[in-house]
Amino acid sequence: MQTLDTQSESPAAVTGAMPVTLEVNGETHRLEIEPRVSLLDALRERLHLTGTKKGCNQGACGACTVLVGGERILSCLALAVQYDGCAITTIEGLASDSALLPLQAAFIDQDGFQCGYCTSGQICSAVGMLAELSRGTPSAVTADIAAREIPLSDAEIKERMSGNLCRCGAYEGICAAIHQVGAAAQETKR
């Protein structure tokens, strides 16, 4: 794991700055930032990871979704200092060795995007929701919350992805991409 010192300003130059270590996409970044800096702004402006998008900056659209410890969060509502030392994965960290994640390939196969602005948040959220589903975490529409395996239905996908908006309306392709990967994952488990 590589450690990068991404401090662009001296601590004295930033009023109230404090040291924060962010583990992003397998790399350690040491920053001096104000406690009120959002995780989204730290990722985009300090670490130059611009795949995570700033949409509404109010937690309503999901364009800023990243994974922290495998759980999806809205990075615009999170303070960077809250995630000191946590494992953070952005869209840039999902692919490995230049190979797309199956979900990324499925978004291409199923036309799960149009303008692409929300796509990174959609994909990070879908990765998180598929992990929730594989753990048996029920949603508001799960018929049997005690079931060991929750069927991947349109209703489950729509409920679990409801925090991610697409202004272009590519929902059919997004849902199809998640079905493609989710069905393959459920077959592998059997």
Q: What is the structure about, briefly put?
A:
The chain has 190 residues and is an alpha/beta fold. The protein has helices at 39-46, 102-109, 119-134, 154-160, 171-189; strands spanning 3-5, 18-24, 27-33, 65-68, 71-74, 87-89. It has a six-stranded mixed sheet with strand order 1-3-2-6-4-5, with helices on both faces.
What characteristics describe this protein?
alpha/beta, 190 residues
Summarize the SSE layout with pairings:
Blueprint: E1 3-5, E2 18-24, E3 27-33, H1 39-46, E4 65-68, E5 71-74, E6 87-89, H2 102-109, H3 119-134, H4 154-160, H5 171-189
Parallel strand pairs: 1-3, 2-6
Antiparallel strand pairs: 2-3, 4-5, 4-6
Question: Can you walk through the features of this model?
Answer:
It is a single chain. By secondary structure, the protein is of the alpha/beta class. Helices cover 31% and strands 15% of the residues. It has five helices and six strands, in the order E-E-E-H-E-E-E-H-H-H-H. A hairpin with a 2-residue loop joins strand 4 (65-68) and strand 5. The mean pLDDT is 91.
